[in-house]
Design brief:
alpha/beta, 5-stranded antiparallel sheet, 7 helices, 31% helix, globular
Length: 227
Amino acid sequence: MIDINIVKKLGDFSINAAFALGESGITALFGRSGAGKTSIINMVAGLIQPDAGHISINGHFLFNSDEGINIPPEKRRIGYIFQEGRLFQHLSVLSNLTYGMRLIPTSQRYVKLDQVVKLLDIESLLDRRPAKLSGGEKQRVAIGRALLTSPTLLLMDEPLASLDEARKREVIPFIAALSRNLLVPILYVTHDLEEIMTLADNVVLIESGHSIAAVSPEEAISRYYHR
């Protein structure tokens, strides 16, 4: 169980979000651009420190303002996939994939290289450099790199936003397969209705920095069209 209850003042904008995730599946943070979705997952990742509240995974606090706990980002065991792949241009796909994995003790690795390569269908790409990849291929490699750190939580910040429609259709099935094949919960930021219906198991609605409801994808779509 992942429990998030955070408060943060960002200039004139404030975040006040409270919701929970299960041990697997895709939970989407859904709201308009500028609603505060990325700020929320940046706090979960440890890139922004909340003013108050707590973030816990399976009963272990990553942040707790009452107890003075704030685990550094590199020690949170959280994978983060950005809008752009952010691959290391001087490394091959294989070296990109294993870059973070090498920092994880063998005893803590539950995701295997062969497993990820097969799941994301990237075996033919392993010797290439990022400059030789399409946008969709880069995102699949970025997903693989994050998975190979054997994270307790995977964060995706609009991972399809920089892709054209053809590349989106290429990547979506691979993201959908993650929750079926790997028991890692995914917190997925989007304001795209198609992604909600195709990928999300649960949806947390975000408005003006506040989490206003946890609903099904169908109810999220209904609320969108009847607001």
